[in-house]
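We were asked to recover a plausible sequence for a given structure. The inputs and outputs are reproduced exactly as logged, with field labels preserved.

PROBLEM: sequence recovery
POSITIONS: 228
GIVEN STRUCTURE:
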């Protein structure tokens, strides 16, 4: 699996294409309880993470392991949230499990000489996304708006007391299993940056290849993949 960039905002690096064996493995992971596949996905996610973090180092050699004597840059890995219903059905949140295990492996790499890694559970789903029938009829912009309306910043004690969560200056990398149109990642980026965060990129296990087939087929693929 080789990381590849697909979107400009944010830059997205995917470990592979959503085809054949990888597609079947992701479906087994999400819908079949095959959490044992996580370690294989994480191998590609770590490589994708290097694609994002390398340019942030003051020199390429530091990204590959030379000790950085200055203070570490703090990077928050932000999983795309699932709905409460999906989390109960699966018993886990796919993107969060991927983020946790990716962090675990990144902390064993030379990148820790330059960066400090934290899990950023900053996002939550306000409500369940609309049904598959309605979702398939939407264009990309309408789909992004619907996703944007269903996602929000995860509340904290201070937000309950009336103060918004302050994410100013926090560098974030989004983590998800599959990217299709990029609508979910763009919506998440918009929400985080509205609260002061800086989204430097996103990593996913797989990317659905761009096709010349009609828009409806592409919607069908995303609907099957991204029910949160």
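RECOVERED SEQUENCE:
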């Amino acid at each position: 699996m080789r990381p590849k960039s697909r979107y400009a905002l944010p830059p997205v690096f995917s470990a592979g294409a959503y085809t054949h064996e990888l597609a079947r493995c992701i479906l087994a992971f999400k819908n079949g309880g095959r959490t044992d596949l996580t370690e294989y996905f994480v191998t590609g996610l770590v490589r994708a993470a290097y694609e994002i973090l390398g340019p942030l180092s003051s020199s390429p050699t530091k990204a590959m392991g030379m000790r950085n004597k200055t203070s570490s840059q703090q990077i928050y890995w932000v999983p795309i949230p699932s709905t409460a219903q999906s989390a109960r059905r699966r018993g886990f949140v796919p993107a969060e499990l991927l983020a946790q295990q990716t962090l675990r492996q990144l902390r064993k790499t030379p990148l820790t000489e330059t960066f400090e890694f934290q899990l950023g559970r900053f996002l939550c789903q306000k409500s369940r996304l609309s049904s598959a029938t309605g979702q398939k009829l939407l264009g990309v912009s309408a789909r992004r708006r619907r996703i944007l309306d269903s996602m929000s910043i995860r509340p904290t004690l201070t937000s309950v007391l009336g103060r918004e969560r302050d994410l100013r200056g926090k560098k974030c990398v989004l983590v998800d299993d599959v990217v299709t149109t990029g609508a979910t990642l763009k919506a998440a980026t918009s929400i985080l940056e509205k609260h002061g965060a800086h989204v430097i990129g996103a990593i996913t296990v797989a990317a659905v290849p761009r096709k010349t087939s009609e828009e409806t087929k592409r919607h069908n693929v995303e609907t099957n993949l991204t029910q949160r």
